[in-house]
Amino acid sequence: MIEEQGRVVAVEDEQIWVETIQQSACGSCTAKSTCGQGLIAKYTSGKRNHIRVVSDKSVSVGDHVVLGIPENTLVKSAFLAYGLPLLLFVGSAGVADSVFSVSEPWVITIGLLGLFLGFSL
């Protein structure tokens, strides 16, 4: 389970708004002074994010909460967001090239249509 701590900033009917503060793990890394990621985290760390969460728990503004998401849900979401469009791009371009034997501009166009279909799904 991937967890993030936050603070309730608003309560609506069955939804709550939780404010989280983006933090980086770069502070404990020994390579932080030579790493580009560490430099980026130095300027973006501390950014406040607001997340709307459906909850049946009784909470009030100012309460501290822990948000959690199972790892397999995160992996499935990442596949749907990144893997599916990529697979449809390569698959549709491959099918257009091998099955239909169309010219290269058509292969590229069909591949891009597969990519956009994957993003829309």
Radius of gyration: 22 Å
The tally of beta strands, per DSSP, is 4
The total of helices stands at: 3
Distance between the termini: 26 Å
What does the average pLDDT come to? 85
Instruction: Note poorly predicted spans.
Output: none
Strand content: 15-25%
Shape: elongated
Which strand order spans the largest sheet, edge to edge or round the barrel? 3-2-1-4
Mind describing the biggest β-sheet?
4 strands, antiparallel
Helix content: 40-55%
Protein architecture, described:
The protein is of the alpha+beta class and 121 residues long. The chain is 45% helix and 25% strand. It has three helices and four strands; from the N terminus they run E-E-H-E-E-H-H. The model has no long low-confidence stretch (mean pLDDT 85).
Topology readout:
Layout: E1 2-11, E2 15-21, H1 36-44, E3 48-54, E4 64-69, H2 71-98, H3 104-120
Antiparallel strand pairs: 1-2, 1-4, 2-3
Helix pairs in contact: 2-3
Brief overview:
With 121 residues, the protein is of the alpha+beta class.
Task: Supply the key terms.
121 residues; 3 helices; 4 strands; elongated
